[in-house]
Amino acid sequence: MKTQSLLDRQAVIVLSLLGLAAVLVPVLNVMTAPGSALHISDHLVPLLGKYLSFALLALSVDLIWGFCGILSLGHGAFFALGGYAMGMYLMRQIGPRGVYADPILPDFMVFLNWKDLPWFWYGFDWFPYAAIMVLLVPGALAFVFGWFAFRSRVTGVYLSIITQAMTFALMLAFFRNDMGFGGNNGLTDFKEILGFPLQSESTRIVLFVLSAVALAAGYLLCRWIVTSKLGKVLVAVRDAESRTRFLGYRVEHYKLAVFTVSAMLAGLAGALYVPQVGIINPGEFAPANSIEVVIWVAVGGRGTLAGAILGALVVNAGKTWFTGALPEFWLFALGGLFVFVTLLMPRGILGTAQDAWTRARARLPSRSAPNALPHAAE
Amino acid sequence: MTEPVTPTLLYLDNVTVSFDGFRALNALSLAIDHAEMRAIIGPNGAGKTTMMDVITGKTRPNEGSALFEGMHDLTSLDEAAIAELGIGRKFQTPTVFDMHTVEDNVLLALKDDRRPFSALFSRRTASERERVDALLERVRLTAHRRRKAGELSHGQKQWLEIGMLLAQEPKLLLVDEPAAGMTDQETADTADLLRDIAKTRAVVVVEHDMTFVRDLDVKVTCLHEGSVLAEGPLDVVSANERVIEVYLGR
């Protein structure tokens, strides 16, 4: 059997580039003078960190969509829940430094005349608890959602629609002040994380490096899954679900497992995003956000993992440039890009590059496939 | 576990399936013995595929019972549980995992722990490799083992799917139109292969190709409108007035 190794050439390239970024960005930020061509400005560091957290989110979508055929149009919800868990920790770190100087209650609760901290805010002043919640809350929601959806054999476009409905419902819920998550303002005005001020350059550099490390770890986890026999079963489910079922695999268990892992990765991405952008609000649940993630993956190359990372970085870099230079054209550009990729590069940037590489190699004299029989008419 | 109610391997009794009032199966009764091969014939819409759906847990009958080994009630189990009991199914159109290599297709079908966590930590053992080698040899795909299954010809895909069925080590194989789209030589080879398999396992073959059914040389059941019209050796069944009328034509 052709053994797929955990670290093939592509994986080595991805990990090397991430390692390089984790070293180079801090060095160029600290060591070079502002104004030099190589300088990475202080405001660019958290922006790049944000891209990396988006890349991790894209990776989580590619794991289920690219390898198991589950098109989630609600993954932004898991991202936002991870972000809220982190935001709740950061809110409680503010302590008496808030506008109303209440040692326990965040400002918005004081403003709403609440007397006590709601029970679900308990424990969030303790970082390890919040860190667990970052994974547990999205994971639990995905598990419950997936349990019902996959057991009832909801697939294809119907599943996509209910994931979309899920994130929309959560957005409406989080907009309500009564929910206890700051309503439409969300959570913001963070001061510090684990005692380090969020505005400081060094904290931002550490957060950037942590994002790179988390992305590398998430990538390795996904590689491990897709190169194992589990990954082969996932692809089997994607390509011929009933065949897999009749071979004796409980398809719903496989989907549930990978959907839950994917949601936890998305939650981790959200937790890295929030301290770097300094705010989390219900807008993160917006259905359009989740759809955008799918576009990143499609642009980069579905089912390649590395392509998801590439797509997230390319599209978001493009978004930053466009919204600065030609703000009114960004949505047209995004839509145009999606149409372009779907029509002309159905395998995305990476898939197209791979195909070109394979073709180039095929032209060289080499061992050809044994007994390449012509396809029978079907 | 309760005592077997019947000594036969597969026992369908009075099975009825209706879709919106249409009776796909109408009080169908059928018994298949251990290591028996049976050919099922009948016109389109006779209920052949629905019968397979009932046996493999895809469709729940409205009435009747389906027993495997005399004690497993197939009407209360799902597809995966039924597959693990030892019932393998080949679809009408060959269904293999196109993006996987031929040997990965067989490997995925090998009888093994089917749970996700065992799959995550699964390592290929020497005995698994040997079994894959032997199966590929048997379905004559050894030379194609590293190709993607999607690149195989139609006939090769049919054989790969039969190989995957064998990898499951089933006690009963349900084979839906294995000769469809095959050349005469491939058809004859397939008949040989199935006869060889039927030495140790029960095989139920649904087929329209009467030459192929004749090649198999086994007991034949003719279905019509969801129930058994005639049963017996091919010569007896094909001489049956009703069978000629509804299926073979005059």
UniProtKB/TrEMBL annotation, chain A:
Transmembrane annotation, as ranges: 12-31, 51-82, 126-150, 157-175, 205-226, 253-273, 293-317, 329-349
Listed InterPro entries: ABC_transp_permease, ABC_transptr_urea_perm_UrtC, LivM-like
Keyword terms of this UniProt record: Cell membrane, Membrane, Transmembrane, Transmembrane helix
Highest taxon in the source lineage: Bacteria
Membrane topology, as annotated: Multi-pass membrane protein
GO terms assigned for molecular function: branched-chain amino acid transmembrane transporter activity
Cellular localization per UniProt: Cell membrane
Gene Ontology annotations for the cellular component aspect, listed alphabetically: plasma membrane
NCBIfam families: urea_trans_UrtC
PANTHER family: HIGH-AFFINITY BRANCHED-CHAIN AMINO ACID TRANSPORT SYSTEM PERMEASE, SLR1201 PROTEIN
The protein, known as: Branched-chain amino acid ABC transporter permease
Organism: Microvirga aerophila
Lineage per the UniProt record: Bacteria, Pseudomonadati, Pseudomonadota, Alphaproteobacteria, Hyphomicrobiales
Automatic annotation (TrEMBL), chain B:
InterPro entries for the chain: ABC_AA/LPS_Transport, ABC_transporter-like_ATP-bd, ABC_transptr_urea_ATP-bd_UrtD, BCA_ABC_TP_C, P-loop_NTPase
GO cellular component: plasma membrane
Pfam families: ABC_tran, BCA_ABC_TP_C
GO MF term (any one): ATP hydrolysis activity
PROSITE patterns found in the cross-reference section: ABC_TRANSPORTER_2 (PS50893)
Domain ABC transporter stretches: 10-250
Keyword set, alphabetical order: ATP-binding, Nucleotide-binding, Transport
NCBIfam families in UniProt: urea_trans_UrtD
Protein name: ABC transporter ATP-binding protein
